[in-house]
Task: structure prediction
Amino acid sequence: KNLTIQGSGATFNAPAALTVAGNLSIASGTLDVTASNFALNVSGNWSNTGTFTPRAGTVTLNGTNQSVTGTTTFYNLTKSVVSADTLTFGASQTQTVTNVWTANGASSNLLSLRSSVTGTRWRIDPQATRTLSYIDVKDSNNINASSIGAVTGIVNSLNNLNWGFDV
Result:
């Protein structure tokens, strides 16, 4: 159910598609999905203090009330919900998305993006495409030079930097 990678020099070479029905933890060592266009589905929390090799694949967070902790570079990162849900990011930790960042809720059922410590910002660096809608953002610092704006159904719950909330 859970997948933990732990051990100095340990490498887990995952197949082209991998589903983790629980938490994924890269405590040390490396998670390398060797296929260049993979699908990694995680139903639990994502924790990374080791090395994740993203290649050109998509990490999909498909559980409820999930968290992303540690500092990770993703190629594509996706979280989409139809019922109200919360995705919590580690305070003062940076998540980089080099290709497509998708974070979508639904009308009247927002996806809340929160910090693990209220009042301490989590950092996001979406470097290319942002596919965002019906989100409620609090305690976030978009460290990318390009502001995040023009998002359908966005709610500013305060303490955010480099987000455009004039929609």
Q: What stands out?
A: The CA atoms of residues 117 and 132 lie 23 Å apart.
